[in-house]
Design goal:
Layout: E1 11-14, H1 20-31, E2 35-40, H2 44-56, E3 61-65, H3 73-85, E4 88-93, H4 108-129, E5 133-142, H5 155-179, E6 182-186, E7 191-192, H6 197-201, H7 204-215, E8 224-225, H8 226-236, E9 248-249
Parallel strand pairs: 1-2, 1-4, 2-3, 4-5, 5-6, 6-9, 7-8
Helix pairs in contact: 1-2, 1-8, 3-4, 4-5
Length: 258
């Protein structure tokens, strides 16, 4: 079987896949043969466009609205996946919220908002999916370079992504032999989701910071792309990665090597 059809017959849930990295992951999995359930928060039109792109590849695609604060979201997403695909072979917990906030400005509401998206949703989505997992499920959590590298005013975001790493290791131990599952985590660095990444960063001070940083990126003096990360995620969803579990792959060009 070629890599182009390495996921033929598989079904995947990719959260937050209406745009950016999630859309790239969903599309790459579909290119390798998987049927895809895309979740979105508010960007329904964008999600529908990605679904149509996947359908043009000859694969099934459905979209489901998935608000992170809605406690019924996990069961609704899983129900849609089972109704359309019969089982869940791949879960990519990509949906995330990244907002800076200085320690003195953190509120209970801000904390809950970040943790609802970055920690609670993947946890209860996985719980809901357990009875419907396929024979060799692949779970990939999308964390962040911020889980291991400290940045100013990111204590809530960074800690939520570090928590996702912890979930990865715990789930690898808990689900491995019981479900024949692998559970891994991918930590991207800054990624360009627009043609000109400077437009994406925006603030001139931030642009200067990132320009200096990427000059020292070990892999290459450039910013990362969504495809750089999507290729790694797709490999972790394949049978070829069967002996890799409980791992964190730092997909950031070597900016955070450990």
């Amino acid at each position: 079987m070629t890599n182009s059809q390495s996921l033929a017959g598989k079904s995947a849930i990719v959260t937050g896949a209406s745009r950016g990295l999630g859309a790239a992951i969903a599309t790459e999995l579909a290119k390798r043969g998987a049927s895809i359930l895309i979740t979105y928060n508010s960007a329904r039109d964008d999600a529908q466009k990605i679904a149509e792109k996947i359908q043009q590849l000859g694969n099934q695609a459905v979209i489901v609205q998935a608000g992170s604060s809605d406690r019924e979201t996990p069961s609704r997403v899983v129900k849609a996946a089972v109704e359309n695909f019969g089982k869940i072979d791949i879960m990519v917990n990509n949906a995330g919220l990244a907002t800076d906030c200085a320690l003195q400005d953190i509120t209970q509401e801000f904390w809950d908002e970040i943790y609802d998206v970055n920690v609670r949703l993947p946890t209860f989505l996985m719980q809901a999916a357990l009875p419907h997992l396929g024979p060799a499920p692949r779970i990939v959590n999308i964390s962040s370079i911020a889980a291991r590298a400290g940045y100013n005013s990111t204590s809530v975001y960074s800690s939520s992504k570090a928590a996702l790493e912890g979930l990865t290791r715990a789930w690898a131990a808990e689900l491995g032999q019981k479900y024949n599952a692998t559970v891994n985590c991918v930590n991207p660095g800054v990624i360009a989701t627009k043609e000109n990444w400077v437009d994406e960063v925006g603030d001139p001070g931030d642009v200067q910071y990132w320009e200096a940083l990427i000059k020292g990126t070990p892999a290459a003096p450039r910013i990362g792309t969504t495809d750089d990360v999507a290729q790694i995620v797709a490999f972790l969803c394949e049978e070829r990665s069967r002996w890799c579990t409980g791992s964190v792959v730092n997909a950031n060009g070597g900016l955070v090597p450990v």
